[in-house]
Amino acid sequence: MARTRQPADRLHAAAMAFFAFYADNPRDLDLGFYLFRGGMKPAGLGRERDERLNTALAAALRPIADAAEALGAPAEAADRLTVEVFAHATGLLLLLHTGRIRMFGASAPELMEAYVRDRIDRLTGS
């Protein structure tokens, strides 16, 4: 019998899995932001490919919103939380992959972990 995880555990796992994937695969992060195509602006890879990438990104982030909704967040708040987690993760990943995180003597995974825990605590009133 499969073990059912609580929504808070699912939210934590989804957010940290997203972060870990891009921490371990920086070239995929580059592709997602078109960083090698003229800087940080939407250069695009062609309409069809862009749509596939956006659909895949939305699917990768959807478990975060689903878990937030299971914790009682309205759909709009769950979507906002997803954007916040995405923004926080990508900011930390940028610092991690450029080496700038060392300037602060900080750990990107630890900061991500603390951020996700804080968001869950806010949702659950802990």
Task: Tell me about this structure.
It is a single chain. With 126 residues, the chain is mainly alpha-helical. 19% of the residues are buried. It has one domain. Helix 4 runs antiparallel to helix 5. 72% of the residues lie in helices and 0% in strands. The model has no long low-confidence stretch (mean pLDDT 86).
Number of strands: 0
User: Which structural category do the helix and sheet elements fall into?
Assistant: mainly alpha
Strand content: under 5%
Summarize the biggest pleated sheet: none
Oligomer: single chain
- Low-pLDDT runs: none
Q: How large is the radius of gyration?
A: 16 Å
Keywords:
mainly alpha; 126 residues; single chain
